[in-house]
Structure formats: structure tokens, C-alpha cells
Amino acid sequence: NVSKLKKLEYLNLALNNIEKIENLEGCEGLTKLDLTVNFIGELSSVKTLQGNIHLKELFLMGNPCADFDGYRQFVVATLQQLKWLDGKEIERSERIQALQNFAAVEQRIREQEKAYCLKRAEDKDEARRKLQEEENKGEMERSHTGSDGHWDTDISAPLYMDTSLIDVDVQPTYVRVMVKGKPFQLVLPAEVKPDSSFAKRSQTTGHLVKSNLTAVLLKGLRPQGTWSSACP
């Protein structure tokens, strides 16, 4: 609903994940638009700002489109109401030259847009593939836990894990355990005092040395083997 803000004068959308300029036509009072460091590769989408007649300043630096050959010329010729682009004033002579070369520049921009969009689609597919692999890996790791999310206590398949892979955040009413980056949260049956609680193992036998907190913790989480972690 940004397009409904008719009196909006300055819109800062820097450092976001915007890929296309759109839905700002209704911002009739817009004079300054900052889109620094986004993912705008469809440079031709600046045409949607032609109706924003009061727009004087535009920032597109840090976007893929800013690296296109002919980028500045294209924007200067397309948005003739602009006075400043990426913090640099647009001279009258620059605009005249941009308008004269617009046809050739626009063709180059279209070609670069197409190449970027293809590359962007490939990058997204690769990111989705890696995410799926991570999720599958997580499912395999969680397969070692019970259906209720607690560690399997079957002694026939003991679990050994280095303490560097485990992090415990102890709070008065819950304990959050990060095991190899995977969170397990336990709601405690009674409020505890984290500052006076601990959980550690014997350096000689490897067994857990229980404290008042450890006793509560182990009601919901009882891994096998030599697991342990120091609590805050």
C-alpha cells in the first residue's frame, strides 16, 4: 500500500531485497528515492517512475543494474525530471547526449537485463538446491531423535558428540540447546537460577556431574555417550 502515500516525499528502501521498481506511481509527492544496495537488475523498471513528476533524486548504486554499460545514460534519458542520480548532479549537456544515444543504449540495456535475469534465476535455483540439501541433512540428523523431539535413549545406539558442537542457553523458565546448529527448546517445570546452575562431566569417567539444573534438564533431554556442556 505504499502507492497510497500521496504526500510521501522521501522513501528510503536501501539495503533490502528489491529486484524491481514498481508500485510507486501513486506517490505523487515523492521527491527522493533511495534504493541503494538492492538486487535491481531490471533497469527498465525505472520507467514506472516517469509519472512521479516531482522526483528529483534517485539512488541506485550498489544494484546489479548500476554496473550495466550505459546505466547512467539510460536513467538520465528515461527520467527527465531527475536532477541528481547517485548523488551526482545531472548536467543539461549530459541529458541532451543521453537522449541522442537513447535507442542504442536501450538496446544494450535490454541485452544485459536478459543476461542478468538468466544468471539470477540460476543463482536462485542453486540457493534452493543448497537449502534443500541442508534441510535433508537436518532431517537425517533429527532421525536420531524420538518423535517428541527428545534424544533417543536406546542404549544400543549411543550418541557421541564433541562439546564444541553444543551450545546451551539457560533461562529461568526454559533451556534452549543448539546441537550442531539445530535448536531444541525445553520448557522447565519450575523456575531455576541460571547463575548458580551448571552441567559438566567428570574428566576421569566422562559421566555427567549433575546439579539442580542438570536434574531438571535431563528429564526432557537424556543423550547417551559423553555429551556435556557448560551452562552460562
Automatic annotation (TrEMBL):
InterPro entries: CS_DNAAF11_C, Leu-rich_rpt, LRR_dom_sf, U2A'_phosphoprotein32A_C. The keyword Chaperone does not apply. It holds the Pfam family LRR_9. Its main location: other. Gene3D superfamilies: Ribonuclease Inhibitor. SMART domains: LRRcap. It is found in: Cell projection, Cilium; Cytoplasm. GO terms for biological process: outer dynein arm assembly. PANTHER family: CILIA- AND FLAGELLA-ASSOCIATED PROTEIN 410-RELATED, LEUCINE RICH REPEAT PROTEIN. This is Leucine-rich repeat-containing protein 6. It comes from Cervus elaphus hippelaphus (European red deer).
